[in-house]
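Quick question: what would this complex look like in 3D?
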Amino acid sequence: MATAALLAGDIFRNRLVRFFGIAALFGGTVATVVAIILRWLATGHPPLSNLHESFVFIGFATGLAALVVELTFRTRLVGAASALVAVLALGYASVLDSSIRPLMPALKSNWLIIHVTSYFLGYGALAVATVASALQLAWSFVPGADPSSLKRIDLLAFRLVLLAFPLLTLGLTTGAVWASFAWGRYWGWDPKETWSLVTWLVYALYLHLRAMRGWRGRRMAVVALVGFVFVLFTFLGVNFFVGGLHSYR
Amino acid sequence: MTERILIKLLEKTASVRLGVVILVLIIAASIAGTGTAYDVYHSWWFAVLLGMFGANLVACTALGIIRGTTRVGSLITHIGILVVLAGVIAGSILGTRGILSLEAGEVSDAFTTDDLTARLPFKVRLEEFRIDWDRSAPHLLHVGVMDAGVRTSIKVEPGSTYDVPGTDYRIEVSRFVADLLVDREQGIISRSDNPANPAMLLLIHHAGETEKRWVFSAHPEFSMSKDGNIDIIYRHDAKPLDFASRVTILDKDGSTTSAIIKVNQPKKHRGWSIYQTSFDVARPGWTGLEVVYDPGVAIVFLGIALMNLGVFLVLHRRFSKSATR
């Protein structure tokens, strides 16, 4: 609903329709929060322990990031497309096994909350950054595209990565601290650890190429898209293709 | 003069282009390492890459300080990474780790590390090892009936009888054994009530006849069937909710310390950390503890704190000024 209304608001430049879109996005995000809290109360542990719960949280994080972007940047299409990504995440969550199982011993820790929450909030921001970068890239090939709006969307993607990076850092490092308490080693080159480090390095590269080498526009958008491929592989690919200590399904 | 040479050298080492190349190589090598049996991460050339990365970082941090060009946030982040690397090196030089395996009642100070045995500066006695199992896990029967072309899964409880939908088979769950053991004299017994080797005795009713069939969750291949038309696989994936070792630590001076060691709840003693790492369903009362002496951990944690502080400062700075960069 939010996607349709934001899209229509963008296309027809109708403020009322756009307002309805933002309200729908807000409503959807709040409803997801309520669902997460209810599940927490029902299971007695933070609902961040399997794939279903993860996708619900990522849907929430993406919705939140889309809302923030829509309210602060007012960049056309980005909010609408991001709301669609959030809906897809929630839709995928709904077909996954949602049965409640007790928490396995390694997950029984308060580090679970900070480690997983910071990662998923970061992933939400990066999902929206990826949407922005993809739109920017596509737009840049449209003849007569307005350079100032291209610049604006470039800046938006950069700011989202900048916002996500401390969250990735917090997720990565609290993971190491937690592993040190749970498994007796802060780093073990477990596939999930390795891929999350690689993802972190790719976004570090993104920030350095921008700040130190002055990259902008298409090149930067491509790096952002590559970065999100790494996010997806770290989050999902490792579970399905590689395995290791982190394969929670 | 020497100062200029030094700065020249720093500039070469600190090159962003070099940094990017090293990072890309580290990324490629790390990815390659997750897909092969070859241990990339402990190879000499990976250590060289990390060393070059460290040198690049040291150089650009030093240059940033000398010229005053680096912002506080990125400076702290970079120093944080270097501190983490220093902690890793300290740990790999000064630290040691190994497995301390104990049976209930056993006292030992010997742990194994890379096939060698080393000794702790104290002894550990295992008083008790306990596993809390998840007893809420469902009992599932995956049933296939050949002639009817039926494949189905049935959630069952001991003592109840179930129709196999679309067929005239009925399955009665006559007995459940949590931890099956075949004893020469007593026959089938349950070694404990822990679901370590779950099995069920089924009565399969069909066409006026009844077949008795044992099915084993951990060993489906052991199941013997008279009626080859019906195929049943039993699954009861009970996982441990918690496992804990109750130990007493005996110091050389005669003092003793009691502790319960769990996953996420290690015991620290005289610079050593003791972690609960393994259990063996076939050996109740046995525990696998990992003992770690790593003076680098505190340094790594300090580096981690600096990294987080640094990246948040970078973020804060960027968002607090109305930059369009």
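Answer marked as accepted. The radius of gyration of chain B is 30 Å.
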